[in-house]
Amino acid sequence: MKCILAVSGSIACYKAYDVARGLVKNGHQVKVVLTNGALEFIKPETLKYLGVEAVFLPTDDFKPEFLSANQTVLHIELAKWADKLIVAPLSANTLGRLNLGLNNDLLGSLFLAFGKKPIIMFPAMNTQMLNQARV
User: Fold this and answer.
1) pTM of the full predicted structure?
2) How far apart are CA 49 and CA 79, in angstroms?
């Protein structure tokens, strides 16, 4: 199965290494999308070492090196490629942005372009934060 692992900024970011390792070990093709917050906690190089196919940064969406042969932007290509999107961990900030449909980074655009394919989210935040209607 082709999976995109999206990692948002949370103290639980370190668990993304285990998730990536487990997906790869079980035979899945994995590409990773990081948010700015995730970059505060984890290193893209470590994810590559664990066997993921590619790691994309929040600003990679419209970079020329990631345009497909037919000039399609990265979030569209990733949405076509993947069978499922896994967001782990899901921070309160990212949950709020996705809920509002904000596409100010690669993950936001990918989320909107993903269509009806499965999206699995693993919230990682204080319970009071999670229970707020705003997120």
Assistant:
1) 0.94
2) 24
